[in-house]
Design a protein that fits this description.
elongated; mainly alpha
Length: 116
């Protein structure tokens, strides 16, 4: 079955319906990913506040390495490219560390202001 009539640019209605169905699924998955990331960042914000309150460093290289290895294994079992999964997690980790640094800076500034 031809999906496109090159003379008119019309798409077969059955193909259009299947394309729309698949795109709706993609949109739903994207929404779920965004909501899951938001929940993840809520948790990591709490971690950042706990670290700041106890003067712990924003980054935890051992934890990060373990998480990357774990995510690579999960990706492999899910038939997802482990290198892609690692890049995604590295991006997320960098953002989390940035948040933790900001939280630590804010805690230091607040402590400095309170001590004056």
């Amino acid at each position: 079955m031809t999906t496109r009539n090159t003379a008119t640019g019309d798409v077969d209605p059955a193909v259009r319906a299947e394309l729309d169905r698949l795109r709706d699924s993609i949109d739903n998955i994207d929404a779920a990913v965004v909501h899951m990331l938001a929940e993840r960042f809520k948790c990591t914000q709490q971690v950042g506040h706990l670290k700041a309150a106890h003067q712990l460093p924003p980054a935890d290289p051992a934890r990060e390495a373990a998480q990357i290895a774990r995510l690579r294994r999960l990706a492999e079992s899910a038939k997802l490219d482990p290198a892609f999964a690692e890049k995604l997690l590295n991006f997320i980790i960098a953002e989390v560390i940035r948040h933790h640094e900001r939280i630590a800076d804010d805690a230091t500034s607040t402590a400095d202001t309170a001590g004056k």
